[in-house]
């Protein structure tokens, strides 16, 4: 079995390597392979992959020259992530990067016993038990988090600033993503302090979206908060279109939604998260132990407002809110 796996690994690196003389192989070792597994899709994440590559290059690694990247995309079907990570481990990757894979942290933590793992995640790695602490993660894994749960009060505040008399606000969550539990808790806690009623709406596949919006209309929720989830990010065009069709103002966690026609977003930069992940992978390839790399947290958050969408919804964005926006899409 070991020899079969090695042949597969050498094939991954290129058939020409098989014909190299033994001496040449000793002098010119095959370039390391970085596994890249994501809950999202290549069509929506091309710019994030480029950010990841930029982080690698800053550590002296250029794809195709001295490092290879092997990709696996779940396209929002998050149940596929553990098997995809397993495939990459079978390929004997030097480092495994996991993006938008919070639902598979258990399997990936097990994988870290075999290969170093770098995460780009949207939940708290300490709260989920992934690492011992941010400063000293321990084990064979580290990463970058946007810790979205701490942002729920701010997102609710921004939505209420735009719609101060909203009696019922809905929260869209993916129940198959364990991060929805803490997201629901954080938003409910923030809403309770403001006397705001919240309706929780589940959607675990794209086919649920129409049902979810029908329930939102039936319950007369007048605004929507969309939680961070790979399925929602992959289908952001669909969600933005549904919100527009039903005239529902919504706030999202990533600027990609506002760019796709969503009303407003507030959160950390996903592009920076992937760039920092690429930097970490490069440092590990150079010999740094993952346990010595702190689990990074965001230091800057972006407020993006789509003024065109606001006008289509008949909303006047307050001048103070508009002035605080990092980006206004017109």
Summary, kept brief:
This protein is an alpha/beta fold and 330 residues long. It is 42% helix and 18% strand. Helix 3 (42-57) crosses helix 12 (270-285).
Fold and architecture overview:
The protein has 330 residues and is of the alpha/beta class. It has 14 helices and 12 strands. It has helices at 2-13, 22-27, 42-57, 81-90, 105-111, 152-162, 179-194, 208-218, 230-234, 236-245, 255-259, 270-285, 307-312, 319-324, and strands at 33-38, 68-73, 95-99, 117-121, 141-145, 168-173, 197-202, 223-226, 250-252, 264-268, 301-306, 327-329. It is elongated. Mean pLDDT is 88; it is low at 1-28.
Write the layout of secondary structure elements.
Elements: H1 2-13, H2 22-27, E1 33-38, H3 42-57, E2 68-73, H4 81-90, E3 95-99, H5 105-111, E4 117-121, E5 141-145, H6 152-162, E6 168-173, H7 179-194, E7 197-202, H8 208-218, E8 223-226, H9 230-234, H10 236-245, E9 250-252, H11 255-259, E10 264-268, H12 270-285, E11 301-306, H13 307-312, H14 319-324, E12 327-329
Parallel strand pairs: 1-2, 1-3, 3-4, 4-5, 6-7, 6-8, 8-9, 9-10, 11-12
Antiparallel strand pairs: 10-11
Helix pairs in contact: 3-12
């Amino acid at each position: 079995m070991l020899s079969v796996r090695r042949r597969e690994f050498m094939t991954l690196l290129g058939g020409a390597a098989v014909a190299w003389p033994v001496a040449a192989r000793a002098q010119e070792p095959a370039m390391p392979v970085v596994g890249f597994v994501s809950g999202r899709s290549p069509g929506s994440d091309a710019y994030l992959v480029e950010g990841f590559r930029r982080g690698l290059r800053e550590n002296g690694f250029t794809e195709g020259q001295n490092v290879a990247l092997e990709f696996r995309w779940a396209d929002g079907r998050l149940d596929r992530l553990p098997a995809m990570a397993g495939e990459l481990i079978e390929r004997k990757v030097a480092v495994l990067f996991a993006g938008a894979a919070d639902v598979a942290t258990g399997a990936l933590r097990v994988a870290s016993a075999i290969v170093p793992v770098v995460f780009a995640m949207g939940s708290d790695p300490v709260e989920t038990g992934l690492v011992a602490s941010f400063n000293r993660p321990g084990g064979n894994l580290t990463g970058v988090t946007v810790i979205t749960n701490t942002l729920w009060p701010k997102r609710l505040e921004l939505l209420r600033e735009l719609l101060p008399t909203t009696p019922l606000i809905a929260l869209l969550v993916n129940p198959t993503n364990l991060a929805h539990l803490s997201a629901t808790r954080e938003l409910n806690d923030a809403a309770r302090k403001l006397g705001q009623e919240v309706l929780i709406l589940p959607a675990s596949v794209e086919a649920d979206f129409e049902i979810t919006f029908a329930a939102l209309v039936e319950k007369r929720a007048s605004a929507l908060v969309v939680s961070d989830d790979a399925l929602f990010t992959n289908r952001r065009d669909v969600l933005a279109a549904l919100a527009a069709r039903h005239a529902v103002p919504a706030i999202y966690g990533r600027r990609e939604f506002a760019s796709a026609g969503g009303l407003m977003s507030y959160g950390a930069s996903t592009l920076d998260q992937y760039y920092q992940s690429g930097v970490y992978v490069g440092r590990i390839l150079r010999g740094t132990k993952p346990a010595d790399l702190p689990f990074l947290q965001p230091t800057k958050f972006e407020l993006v407002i789509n003024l065109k969408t606001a006008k289509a919804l008949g909303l006047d964005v307050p001048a103070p809110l508009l002035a605080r926006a990092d980006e206004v899409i017109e």
